[in-house]
Amino acid sequence: MKTAVFQISEVDGSTYLVCLRMTGLQEACALESWLKMHAAPGKEIKLLGRFNAVHAALGQNEAEALILGEGAKNSAGAVFTVEELVDRVLSR
User: Fold this and answer.
1) Which tens digit of pLDDT belongs to each residue from 48-61?
2) Looking at the DSSP assignment, which residues form a beta bridge with residue 21?
3) What is the DSSP letter of 24?
């Protein structure tokens, strides 16, 4: 199962990244189509892709370490995958 990432852009310029574990590309494309049909006027929905892991950083230093290939070793837990976060929340 991979994580599908959707970009949802609002009229006011704000944007949300929504990450969902999905079993296949067809399922992700179907959800994108459904969201486009049911979204409020002015919202733009894009499927950015499906990924094995989606990493998030809590600050610029952590982002730089992640981008430069230093990863989480110098980030004191401030770099994590979305999948890890979901697992933690669901295990409660």
Assistant:
1) 999 998 888 778 88
2) 3
3) -
**Alpha-carbon separation of residue 6 from 1, 14, 62 (angstroms):** 16, 14, 23
- Structure tokens, 86: 């979901």
Q: What single-letter amino acid sits at 52?
A: N
DSSP 3-state of 19: strand
DSSP E strand boundaries for the chain? 2-9, 15-22, 44-51, 55-57, 79-81
Q: pLDDT category, 4, cuts 50, 70, 90?
A: very high
Quote the pTM value: 0.77
Provide the residue ranges of all domains of the chain, joining segments of one domain with +: 1-52, 53-92
Residues 6+ apart with CB under 8 A from 51: 2, 3, 5
Q: Tell me the pLDDT tens digit for each residue of 6-47.
A: 999 999 999 999 999 999 999 999 999 999 999 999 999 999
